[in-house]
């Protein structure tokens, strides 16, 4: 793309005058080129479910627009084999003056379907969308959520071989989002369709997609399994944001946070653990004014943003005793065989809810990963691979022959 600054509200006279000045002065306006995507090389096979992730402006939507043939590539080519169904923006391919029913036929025609093929799926589309009461109402009277429902229903039911979905599910309510994810799983696994899914919801990416692509500044940073790429993305974000000194950020005239670090079983610093290891989280803080009851706490979030658990210093002798002035270390130990494989973020706080005082609450101050441990003493035993779920405790099993 060419980035050029234009002066707002200029008249024809201004344009002619500026053009004459440029002719005699020899000055030419320089345009800055911007590559939204560069050096992208991908092979996506039939039936694959690919999640495309990255920060805003990374090039995710541009990639989908090239694949859907909306935007032609400046260099190179995109070779697509199969009918493409796109859901890139709410209202794309719809006409506001036409009714919902008429827009179904319009959108189907754009996808290259005959009227008989659309008739075959019409009832299922209307039923899934949940807007049957308003199906003969002009689309301009629909809310954005109702338009999304109808657009997704059309895209999913008109049987495209390739389904492209941008970050549009965020418009719908939670019930409809769950319904959409279930439909995409059905379409991809049951009918062998290919899905390319852009989302900032990492839970959707890991739950739906078997592979993922990480884009940053228009280039591919990493490809691989959805869990692996999401974990790398999460680690990259936190480590970039973590180049700050917590001692300079958190605290007040009573207490200040100095450092937060992860500990292995022998007390040494580390940030990568196996599932059968204990994990220590240490917060070092300085009490500037003595005489206050201070509670320490940690929040553990997984790479999908789910709060796995909170822990507070209720078992510490300082829970009901005031701190004296000085430096302190608060360590909480996560037992072995509790955390599932993946990446985790730590937030920390010092507070006292009984007195309605929060001295500080720092988010994402540290980060750690958990890998599989192929031993008999884990939830998976010697079987490789990831287990679904937030935690993976090693439970006691009893199996008895009853007959």
Task: Please name the defining characteristics of this protein.
globular, 6-stranded mixed β-sheet, alpha/beta, 403 residues, 9 helices, 26% strand
Helix and strand arrangement:
Layout: E1 2-3, H1 12-25, E2 32-33, E3 49-53, H2 60-67, E4 84-87, H3 100-110, H4 115-129, H5 144-157, E5 162-165, H6 174-191, E6 194-198, H7 202-208, E7 211-216, E8 219-225, H8 226-241, H9 246-249, E9 255-263, E10 272-274, E11 279-287, E12 295-302, E13 307-312, E14 326-334, E15 342-352, E16 357-371
Parallel strand pairs: 3-6, 3-7, 4-5, 5-6, 10-16
Antiparallel strand pairs: 1-2, 7-8, 9-11, 11-14, 12-13, 12-15, 15-16
Give a nutshell description of this structure.
The chain is α/β, with parallel strands linked by helices and 403 residues long. The chain has helices spanning 12-25, 60-67, 100-110, 115-129, 144-157, 174-191, 202-208, 226-241, 246-249; strands at 2-3, 32-33, 49-53, 84-87, 162-165, 194-198, 211-216, 219-225, 255-263, 272-274, 279-287, 295-302, 307-312, 326-334, 342-352, 357-371. It is globular, with a radius of gyration of 28 Å.
Notes on the protein architecture:
With 403 residues, this protein is α/β, with parallel strands linked by helices. The chain has helices at 12-25, 60-67, 100-110, 115-129, 144-157, 174-191, 202-208, 226-241, 246-249; strands at 2-3, 32-33, 49-53, 84-87, 162-165, 194-198, 211-216, 219-225, 255-263, 272-274, 279-287, 295-302, 307-312, 326-334, 342-352, 357-371. The strands form four sheets. It has a six-stranded mixed beta sheet, with helices on both faces. A five-stranded mixed beta sheet has the order 10-16-15-12-13. Helix 3 packs across helix 4. Residues 243-247 have low confidence and may be disordered.
